[in-house]
Amino acid sequence: MTLDQLIDTLPPSAKDLKLNFSSLVRNNTELTPQQLWGTIVSTTIATRSAPLTAAVLSTAPEHLSAQALEAAKTVAAIMGMNNIWYRFHHLSSNPKYATLPARLRMSGLRGHGIEDVDVELWALSVSAVNGCGKCVDAHENVVREKGLTEETVAAAIRVTSVIHAIGAVLDQLAAEANAAVQQPAVV
Question: Which of 64-68, 74-78, 108-112, 120-124 has the lowest mean pLDDT?
């Protein structure tokens, strides 16, 4: 199923998400196509919604080079790991943890052949999904130093919020369908 077909199946309760998807994704003018679709791919993977991820990954090659698509997948994987490590630092009241080395491989965030600012924007967006304040601050600082405006960052986070909400609705629909199958027959 394509992404557009999947969006069209959203229930009436998700009408605002459909409208926001149309204006913020289909008709986006604030991000470059690579920024937009890298954000969509990386944050969709972070949602952990299987139907949304499948639809996005089937549609993304129309909008991203193979190299950019691989970089977006890599960002999602690495930030999924880093966001846990650094969110733990943020949540723990023990300052000792912040002094300990991460000892986590993160080389995929470099040498990908994609504009660093785009990769950093995707890392920021995934960090927003995963709720890691340290990573949000760090990556927001980098993209701003590399020349992105607050408006561009906000545009990516708007897309991220819509993608995340669509994933939640799709998970809700799957849970409802599963519950209906498990209901005993009424005699």
Answer: 108-112
Say which of 40, 123, 129, 132 is annotated catalytic. Answer: 132
Residue 4 annotated among the catalytic residues of the structure: no
132 is known as an active-site residue: yes
Per-residue three-class SS string for the chain: CCHHHHHHCCCHHHHHHHHHHHHHHHCCCCCCHHHHHHHHHHHHHHHCCHHHHHHHHHHHHHCCCHHHHHHHHHHHHHHHHHHHHHHHHHHCCCHHHHHCCCCCCCHHHCCCCCCHHHHHHHHHHHHHHHCCHHHHHHHHHHHHHCCCCHHHHHHHHHHHHHHHHHHHHHHHHHHHHHHHHHCCCCC
Residue 187 has pLDDT above 80, yes or no: no
Which of 7, 55, 114, 135 is the catalytic position? 135
